[in-house]
Design a protein that fits this description.
Strand order of the largest sheet of chain A: 4-3-7
Mean pLDDT of chain A: 92
CATH topology of the largest domain in chain A: Arc Repressor Mutant, subunit A
Helix content of chain A: 25-40%
CATH superfamily of the largest domain in chain A: Winged helix-like DNA-binding domain superfamily/Winged helix DNA-binding domain
Oligomer: homodimer
Low-confidence stretches of chain A: none
CATH architecture of the largest domain in chain A: Orthogonal Bundle
Strand content of chain A: 15-25%
Structural class of chain A: alpha+beta
Radius of gyration of chain A: 15 Å
Number of domains of chain A: 2
Amino acid sequence: MTVTPQELKARMENFKQVCRQNKLPQTPQKLAIFQHLAASCTHPSAQEIYDRVKEKFTNISLATVYKNLKKFTVLGLCIEIPIPGGANRYDAKLEIHGHAVDTANGLVHDLELPKEYNYSAQVMGRQVKQIHLTYYI
Amino acid sequence: MTVTPQELKARMENFKQVCRQNKLPQTPQKLAIFQHLAASCTHPSAQEIYDRVKEKFTNISLATVYKNLKKFTVLGLCIEIPIPGGANRYDAKLEIHGHAVDTANGLVHDLELPKEYNYSAQVMGRQVKQIHLTYYI
DNA sequence: CTCTATGCAAAATATTTGCAAGGGA
DNA sequence: TCCCTTGCAAATATTTTGCATAGAG
């Protein structure tokens, strides 16, 4: 299971466009962080992204990774997957989908959802900002 | 929105039975912690439960609350609701249901789910241990 | 040139662990 | 009695923040 080159390209294009729209400087660090996330299907944690990006940017700080992931999340460029008793995981796949958290090894898998799961845009009279459907297996 | 006396009683009965079945001593602390959780519909955090239980058990420690909530969760007496950027919340309602997290004030509400959401017992060939459906509004 | 991002270190949060003493079964 | 639990304190883990400097637009 890998992200196709076309999909990766689309994610990077969207990233750059959203950065421009929001006047967010496209620093090499931001690009490296997002690029790694966008190419991943392992739902990496901030620490894992940091470890990988550090290979190129030996001086990068974990705080920078956190700061940028937070910004990306707010801008809707990725979603934050909270894990009970563990670090948040991040996912650059924007289409509505679920996750299966394997409690035996901590791996997080994407799940396609049946059509019925396409959520109503309103819950309790409020616009839904984000939906998380997680199966623990 | 409150837990009905019947429901509370049922939850306490189930708690006591599960404790006996698992040879878990029913200490006053455990009873107080579970009782408060079972009577709550606010999905309290460990800290909130600690604050309340401390009114009766002035010496209780936050670690004890965490230890017991963890045990309750493992035994299926409650579920742990992870909140991005915040402490876990706990819920003694065992029926499959969703949650609406109000991002404006941090309140967590229960949501009834349409029948379609009753999940298949298998995901990726594995038994589903727990399902979390959370709307962020 | 201006403004934000970065890197570092320290702080803030959240949760877990080790251990001696106490108390349920 | 035996073992699990409790309470305390310290350790861990995770994430955020303050600030001086660097670098993108």
